[in-house]
User: What shape does this take?
Amino acid sequence: MNPRGTRVRRARRAPRSVWLAAGAVVLAGTGVTAVAVTGGSEGTGADDNSRPAKAHTLALDGKDAKQRELPRTETQLFSLVGVSWEDSADVFEGTAQIRTRSADDGTWTDWRDLDFDIRAPESQEGDDSGVRGASEPLWVGPSDAVEARVVAGGKETAVPQALRLDMIDPGETDTGKGQGKGSGTDKSSARPKKTDTAVPSPSATGPGTAPSTAPEPTGASSEPAEAPATDQPASPTAPAPSGEATEEPQEPTAEPSAPAPSQEPTAEPSAPTEDPTASTPPATEEPTEEPQEPTAEPSAPAPGQEPTAEPSAAPTGEPPTQPSAQPDPAESTGPTAPAAPAIVSRADWGADESLVADPPSYLDKVDAVFVHHTAGTNSYDCAESPAIIRAILTYHVKTNGWNDIGYNFFVDKCGTVFEGRAGGVDKPVRGAHTYGFNGYSSGVSLLGDYENGGTPTPAAKQAIADVSAWKLGLHGVDPEAKVTLTAAGDTGVYKTGEKATLNTVSGHRDGFATLCPGATLYSALPEIRRTAGASVYAH
Assistant: This one.
């Protein structure tokens, strides 16, 4: 276990019994049992038109110890698929291939390989008895039938025990924030359907802003536009870093000192004009009384310096006060921190918070950012991004057995940034993304496959640079510098206890033996680091 990340633990099996309501369904003509594990919708803020995500499993049984096959089998609706097995310590060597049938037109896909780059966290979270070994999940879109084959390879003489196919239906959400409904696709009247019209290219004045095809990020108010129809869409026009709308600049200033339209002035008409920018209730401290809290740590490396010792001390298990002195983990770090890029909150992409049994654990500092890709497909529409992330959350919790989604942030090809693991975007939340280095870092994952021909869009690269610059800047870390970290596990690149000198913005493969984040995204990292260094969100 890495000593730098601690957790206040509580019993996990009891809370999960709430959502482990399983029903067995024998699929006609197959003799295979599908178990549907349904998550509750409590805490999602969803209305009666919403339904929670669901996980379905099919046991991959057979007499041949070296391989398993599942014939074409009709299933309940799903949009994401992977394989898993009982022992997370059993690292599978071999191939797993699946093909699926579209629920829309009934066509079957070609065979597709599943990747095996997931490792359980090197912490108490990864030691839980319910943690399973698993492949990376693959987004396939709404599907209603599947075929699979798994073959042991290399030194493996048998497939893992309790091998099964895991299928995730992301459910439907309607948060009232521009996020729509759909099985595998979020649609709403605020977001036009996919067309052949490309989204206008940005002018580099709004890095990190959310495109119009995704839920409106916190602090952003730009109007929606069409979703891109191609694999490599043009980047959307983004608002200024302040988050103010640029299409209708005069409306917000029509009556700057007037109360809301549904309210009438009270006996104290001068109150709204005393501090029109105040965002906290009167009971809290005034934002100008603690302007220096976020910069209280003078020991953080200056830009361009390369620390050679252990970057930070062991955490206490509670959110550190350096990034934010506010009691609410979701609040910003204070007036001296760099402005945050627009980030779609968990509530806005429809996270089912009832799945998360334990509170988050925190690091004392974020020393590096690791860049990932989700693999899967690049042909998704950006309106599907929330559904993809909901499906990954469900897979990481119900299939892998983790406490929450592994990545700290997601970015889609339109340049939208999404909040990942819960705990506060401005807090050093410990994630589960880079085995051996989770205790020092934040993980940013780009939706799509950048190993097999996909190319990251300019909007995506800008968004990765901006969120990395901002996150590292909260801790005084230069995104163009290097840092020396100690591996907390055997990663295939480093042995436990070995010192690793890495870029503060690195690829997953720099710390762990994997192809992630894919060849084209990895080759873009030098550009992303330079862009991060020049970002308006850099400290």
In short: The chain has a mean pLDDT of 73. The first strand starts at residue 21 and ends at 26. The longest helix spans residues 458-473. The two ends are 32 Å apart (CA to CA).
